[in-house]
Design brief:
By secondary structure, the chain is an alpha/beta fold. The protein has 14 helices and 18 strands. The chain has a six-stranded mixed beta sheet with strand order 2-15-14-18-16-17. The mean pLDDT is about 95. Bound molecules: iron/sulfur cluster (2 copies). One iron/sulfur cluster binds next to helix 13 and helix 14.
């Protein structure tokens, strides 16, 4: 059953009329098999792995090739079967990282297992088996910062609610939408597995009301599972729909909308009894536990000012440049290329001519977006208060901006810059085109660093 929720978080914006998503919404997922992949040893910021392979080694898809060295890291697996050509440093989005280059020598292993086309009976699978499976399979959040999933699920906090996030509120991106339409069974089975792993009483699959077909598909699959009599006693999974408003899919905003609870400043969702995982993460959990395949692939939306916007399922390590070529190439010479969506994704190239490499797909790359370059100059703040009204974290961005530019980090801290979620609403709304998000994010990082240093001194 689909339940209609209310958007209750403060602020937020309505950045588009839907024409941005329409570019790729109807583009069915296409499989793409590159001839080589470049798998970064760090799949999310601070998530470094030690590579276990050397040039000349033969690897099979799903084979372990990297062991976590950092708290934010999850195991890394070969995303194709073939030969390791090189282990070398590459520059990815301005950072030098060690990477493993593999030449593909076989077609990808496409699973036809029944969990992809029917509700699965998971009653014999224990919570411990699921936790071990997602840890060893290298599961990370696929919609946000790429946090290792098992660390969320191994919490000692009491969890009563699991939220499976299908809001996909970022403009232009449609990879989660296509997943919900085309991989609904695997997603629902994965959500049920994650519900068991969380120990929660209920799971809500949360969508915005601009995706009615996806909501219908998932509700129908859940109904089928109930009618088959294979749900565990007390297993409660429902679809919840919310008004379309950015950033509905932000963890804190979604928690507030579903449960009415506010995650405390500096706290985590588990502090209020909630775990949030993306729909792609749920689907990947099913691949690991029911399909016995670690996280080696993901869906990426390639859209904006490209000839044929689309959604592609690709091995981790695929070149972003190749994917833009596959989508027909860019259609404006004066452009900006963004890794992810326009509100939160970093700009990786300007006036890109299609020749240089852009970046390599990681476990949490949701899209490649090409936008026309819009040259503007920042103007002085006119104190309109727009950014303050739009900020979903309840901050006063213009004040943080001034404090940061004065290098007054103490004031930034007093203004709670540490709570910025880098959503982009303030920059979007600002009539003076001030680069608020960039600076509030930098202020946040500076304040957090000061807090860490203070904690170390105290210890
Ligand atoms: S980027 Fe930060 S300061 Fe700006 S609206 Fe979002 S949370 Fe608020
Ligand atoms: S929206 Fe822009 S102009 Fe208005 S108060 Fe904020 S920074 Fe100033």
């Amino acid at each position: 059953m689909q339940k209609k929720g209310k958007s209750v978080f403060p602020g937020g914006v309505h950045p588009t009329d839907g024409s941005d998503k329409a570019l790729s919404m109807d583009a069915a997922i296409q499989q793409y098999e590159p001839s080589t992949v470049t798998i970064l040893s760090e799949q999310s910021f601070g998530g470094k792995c030690r590579l276990l392979v050397q040039p000349g080694d033969t690897v099979e898809e799903g084979q372990l090739i990297g062991e976590p060295e950092a708290f934010m890291a999850a195991p890394l697996h070969a995303s194709v079967s073939g030969t390791v050509l090189d282990v070398r440093e590459v520059v990815n989005q301005g950072r030098k990282l060690l990477a493993c280059v593999i030449q593909r020598e076989k077609e990808c292993a496409e699973s036809s297992a029944s969990y992809r086309t029917a509700a699965a009976d998971i009653r014999e699978i224990s919570r411990e088996e699921i936790l071990a499976g997602i840890r060893d399979g290298g599961l990370t959040g696929m919609g946000g910062a790429g946090f290792p999933a098992h660390k969320k699920y191994e919490t000692d906090k009491d969890i009563d609610t699991l939220l499976i996030n299908g809001a996909e509120c970022e403009p232009y991106l449609t990879c989660d939408y296509r997943l919900m339409l085309e991989e609904g069974y695997a997603l629902v089975n994965g959500a049920r597995l994650l519900l068991k792993a969380s120990g929660a009483e209920r799971a809500c699959i949360c969508l915005e009301d601009n995706k009615p077909q996806a909501a219908e598909n998932l509700s129908r699959i859940l109904e089928e599972a109930r009618n088959q009599g294979i749900m565990e006693s007390g297993e409660q999974v429902e679809v919840k729909i919310f008004p379309t408003k950015y950033p509905e899919g932000g963890e804190r905003q979604l928690i507030q909308a579903v449960t009415g609870r506010e995650v405390p400043m500096g706290g985590l969702p588990a502090d209020v009894g909630v775990i949030v995982s993306n729909v792609g993460t749920a689907k990947a959990a099913a691949d690991m536990i029911l399909g016995h395949m670690p996280l080696t692939r993901r869906i990426v939306t390639v859209t904006g000012w490209v000839k044929n916007p689309g959604n592609y399922r690709v091995p981790i390590g695929t070149s972003a440049k190749e994917l833009v070529e596959l989508a027909g190439g860019v259609t404006v010479p004066q452009n900006r290329v963004i890794a992810g969506g326009p509100m939160t994704g970093p700009c990786v190239a300007s006036d890109w001519n299609g020749e240089e490499e852009l970046f390599y797909i990681t476990k949490n790359t949701s899209g490649i977006l090409v936008l026309p370059d819009s040259a503007w100059e920042e103007q002085p703040c006119i104190r309109c208060g727009g950014c303050e009204n739009a900020c979903p974290a309840g901050l006063v961005p213009w004040q943080i901006d001034f404090a940061f530019q004065q290098e007054d980090y103490e004031l930034c801290e007093k203004l709670y810059a540490s709570e910025c979620i880098a959503c982009g609403c303030c920059s979007y709304i600002c009539p003076a085109k001030r680069e608020l998000t960039v600076r509030t994010r930098m202020a946040r990082d500076a304040v957090k660093q000061r807090m860490r240093e203070r904690a170390v001194k105290k210890a």
